[in-house]
Hints:
The chain is of the alpha+beta class. Helix content is 32%, strand content 17%. It has helices at 37-54, 63-71, 82-90; strands spanning 17-22, 25-32, 76-80. It has a three-stranded antiparallel sheet. The longest helix is centred in the middle third of the chain and has 18 residues, at 37-54. The radius of gyration is 17 Å and the shape is globular.
Amino acid sequence: MAALSRVKREDPGVAERFELYAGGLELANGFSELTDASEQRRRFVEEQAQRRRLGYRVYPLDESFLDAVGRMPDAGGVAVGLDRLLMLLVGAEAIEDVLLFPASGFLSGTDRG
């Protein structure tokens, strides 16, 4: 998630993140964790304002998360989508074809209000 990734010191317009693709299918996301609590707070407040403008539900800031972010050492990681690996292995064209409980069955498509 770019929202949780650190910005490159040498180029503030670029996040320290990458995506892994195979056959045009995104399999993984990787990034350096943002460990600056004040920057994370600024991003969350900006996201709240955007959600408010668009008429979406605005969630409260998670203060315990923000506190933990400020105490984290430098870290990074990669999230591999097992559902996406399965898509690649079986040749599925839609993720719903490999999910046991596809979200489309119980979500309306938005999280408005």
